[in-house]
Amino acid sequence: MTERSGRLTRNAVLVLCVLLQNVSSSFAQQENESGHSIGKVSTNEDLIVLELKDGALGKANLFDLAGRTLRFTLEGSRYRVENEALRWDSDFGSELVGAELTLRQFTFPFSGKRWNSFLVGTTGSIRFGTPEKDIRPDPYGKIDGGVTLGRFDQLAEAASTLIGSAPAICVFLKPRMSGPHYAKELPDRAVITWDLTEPFGSLLDFTWFKTVNRFQAVLHRDGSIELSYKELAAKDAIVGIYPVLSGEEKPLAGTRSPEVHFSSLTHKDGPFAVVYESFHYLALPKPQDLSCTVIQALGDRFDFLAYYSDFRIDNQEASSPSDGPLGDAVKGIGQTENDVDPESRCTHGRFQLGFLMPVYVGANEMQERPPQGAPAGSRHDITFYSHQLAEGSPDGKPLPYNYAMSHLGHEVSHRWGAYVSAKVNGETISLGPWPHWAQGLQEPVAFPYQRPTEASILGGGVWQDNFDGTYTQLHDGYFVPATGYSYLDLYLMGLISAAEVPDFFILKNLVPAGKDVNGHAIFKSERTKVTIQDVIAAVGPRLPDVDHSQRKFNTGFVVVVEHGKGPSREIIERANGIRQQWTYYWETATGHRASMRTNPR
Q1: Could you tell me where the DSSP H helices lie in 514-553?
Q2: Percent residues over pLDDT 70 in the chain
Q3: Bridge partners of 353?
Q4: Which of 44, 265, 269, 276 is the most core-located residue (most Cβ within 10 A)?
Q5: ω before 544 within 30° of 0 (cis)?
Q6: How many CB atoms lie within 10 A of CB 556?
Q7: Which uninterrupted H or E stretch holds 579?
Q8: Residue environment code for 288-308, b if the CB has 16+ CB neighbours within 10 A, otherwise e
């Protein structure tokens, strides 16, 4: 469902970590600061309501330039900026294939040089001075070409960090956007046009349908620049001009002083060496402030906390990572350190894990089911399975809040996994890219949640041995639709004994070898048998054992609202729907060997 400049701590586990690289540096720096109350807490039946203090998360600054053109005019090495009526070239030219655009008729002056080629990023930026062959994937593994940000960077903060990083123009830089972009060259200018959609349909998204975002950059031979905004559904992005500074301008780097409000600029303002505006939602709360606000008001009675809000925050993903002190020590689950101080989360040991940030009521995750007409997505989108899940349901409807169960089931299970290795024939082998099970690990679910064949919600897969050196992947271990827990998961959770864990295996060096008649992928691979005793040999026995482990849990469902506002009917209904389904999910996926309350008192 984040990123920590170079290291990922064992307790800040993140949703959709199959996409994960590292966690935002601000999270790492704030990890063990003491939490404090940021609002007033009350209860609404079985929900907790947290009304924020005035200004607790700053102020939003949403995009207000739709139907306008920003014109940047060179004065020496600096720019005057004017906000003008829309100028729009409806002849887009040819669609760009790849990121590099080469000019044939003129060179464009920018950042002290003249350029005959540059890179056009899919997500709304132009970057100079980087060869296309040197482009690195973004945090989602995609090649963008332009400016890229960290997976959980807040736009309000990231905008200033771009100063001095590379010569660039942020036309409408918003991560995760996709769609075609076009270019044409005339003798005196180059016109670049984007026709993009925000991401849609997945657990990480705010919409089930494509959105329209059309904007354009015109780079003139004389160095002037026009940024035009025809139609924008998105309301958050970075817009600005980022030449690399030199000489006396260098002290500007790392400051917010060049940030302006473009809508109020006139030709009299400036000129600016660097000029930008970050459009963003409210700031992310600190996880320790969220937990402390609740626990100080209601007591240290929660094992897990899930937060939902009536407002959006400055985050490009609709879901949330998790964070927490993990509670009392459990041995034999592969965790050798605990980086979050329980006192910073205002707990004496009960609280174990919570969402890092609230989930917005308008996010896909908070929808009971996809709306009518939502397009079928990939195998990692719930819409792909709608008919299949409905056919297997007694009432002809898929189970409700599937994305929410995927999220909660995955994050809560990070309390115990997936961190273990195994010692096989004297050699210690990893069972996954921590903190998830490896793709080739055989991890069938013990008590399926909704389909006969499910792989662990922490990854792995369900593999069929074809006894010819190939293996068929019956389930790929991605936790959409929501899946249950494997035998190994349940052992690490303290819910089954070692004797109840069947032998399993791990496949290494997977090589694609086609598909079967049902479309399941087939791989050639090398198989290594693994037993639970191999795991115990590597990490020790699970303590407390199955006879003494925790079996009763309590999750607090927290509705977060802005100052002076009460929760909407929509968020109350949806948070209650998720809360009720969570109890059913937990008891089903654990085979009724553990119970889950959602009691705020």
Answers
A1: 532-539
A2: 92
A3: 304
A4: 276
A5: yes
A6: 26
A7: helix 569-589
A8: bbbbbbbbebbebbbbbbbbb
DSSP output for 132-197:
GGGPPP-TTS----S----TT--HHHHHHHTTTTS-EEEEEE-TT-B--EEEEEETTEEEEEEEEB
Coil, strand or helix at 36: coil
Rounded CA-CA distance 278/214 in Å is: 18
SS (H, E, C) 288-315: HHHHHHHHHHHCCCCCEEEEEECCCECC
How many beta carbons lie within 10 A of that of residue 268, not counting itself? 7
Tokens of 511: 């090589």
* Interatomic CA distance for residues 218 and 189, integer angstroms: 7
Token output for 133: 């062959």
Q: pTM of the full predicted structure?
A: 0.92
Q: Tokens 């049902």 correspond to what residue?
A: 518
Asked whether the predicted pLDDT for residue 477 surpasses 80, the reply is yes
Q: Residue 498 has what DSSP assignment?
A: G
CB-based burial of residue 513 (10 Å sphere; 0-12 exposed, 13-18 middle, 19+ buried)? middle
**What are 597's strand-pairing partners?**
554
Nearest to 351 by CA among 303, 385, 393, 383: 303
Which run of H or of E encompasses 423?
strand 421-424
Q: Give the closest residue to 520 by CA, choosing from 584, 476, 583.
A: 476
Packed helices 402-413 and 569-589: angle between N→C axes, nearest 10 degrees: 60
100, exposed or middle or buried, with CB in 10 Å at 0-12, 13-18, 19+? Answer: middle
What is the radius of gyration, based on Cα positions, of the chain? 26
Please give the backbone phi and psi of residue 515, each rounded to the nearest 5 degrees, phi first.
-135, 155
Q: What is the pLDDT of residues 121-150, one digit of tens each?
A: 999 999 999 887 778 888 888 888 899 999
DSSP letter for 416, please: T
Structure-block tokens of residue 212: 């329209």
